[in-house]
Inverse folding.
């Protein structure tokens, strides 16, 4: 993959960016398979591979920074890193604060996970856990169910197990492996399609960097390598 040729557009854009600077990529490191910390404490997952490849194609020197989800946008705006690559769905509300590249995943269904035996739950009349500042939290609030928010994905799962919540709503690609590996948890036969796919978030002032990453993403779509990563990490439908 590293030997794939950059598109002309990606080369031109990267040449215009201050490549002497290190581009800092901010991620949560707690949302597998998109991003997580491996046994060595390093960022791993779909977005680690994707981000490294995008930087290689754009001839940028990049480093990874982890940040809690609930402050990931404010800390981008304040300059703690230069781009967010953290399973962040593109929404109109977020685009009022930051810019996005084109999407690098298709819109991913969100799913409900409950305790095994509670598959008949009526989610419209239930207590639903979701991670703070996510599209799922906004969706639950809009549909009128009782929302309880938590700072991390792990805490939403714990809330279901403890009885604090009846279900958790999150990306299906995150919840499905957990349900498969834990006999006490189960997915409901109901998905929600929320958001417009996942993209990289950047400061509104960094238009050139956004265009650079946009061109690199497009080059991966064009040569099929993005689809290979999507299939490898099972993060949704291919392009």
């Amino acid at each position: 993959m590293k030997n794939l040729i950059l598109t002309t557009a990606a080369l031109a854009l990267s040449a215009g960016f201050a490549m002497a600077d290190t581009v800092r990529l901010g991620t949560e490191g707690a949302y597998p398979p998109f991003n997580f910390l491996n046994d060595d404490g390093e960022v791993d997952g779909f977005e680690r591979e994707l981000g490294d490849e995008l930087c290689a194609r754009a001839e940028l020197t990049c480093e990874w920074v982890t940040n809690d989800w609930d402050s990931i946008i404010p800390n981008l705006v304040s300059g703690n890193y230069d781009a967010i690559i953290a399973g962040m769905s593109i929404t109109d509300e977020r685009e009022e604060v930051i810019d996005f590249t084109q999407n690098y995943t298709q819109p991913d269904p969100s799913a409900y996970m409950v305790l095994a035996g509670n598959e008949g739950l009526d989610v419209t009349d239930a207590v639903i856990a979701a991670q703070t500042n996510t599209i799922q939290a906004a969706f639950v609030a809009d549909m009128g169910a009782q929302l309880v928010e938590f700072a991390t994905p792990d805490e939403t799962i714990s809330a279901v197990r403890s009885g604090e919540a009846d279900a958790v709503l999150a990306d299906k690609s995150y919840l499905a492996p957990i349900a498969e590996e834990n006999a006490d948890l189960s997915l409901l036969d109901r998905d929600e399609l929320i958001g417009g796919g996942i993209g990289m978030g950047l400061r509104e002032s960094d238009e050139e960097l956004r265009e650079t990453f946009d061109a690199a993403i497009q080059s991966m779509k064009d040569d099929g390598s993005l689809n290979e990563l999507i299939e490898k990490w099972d993060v949704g439908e291919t392009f």
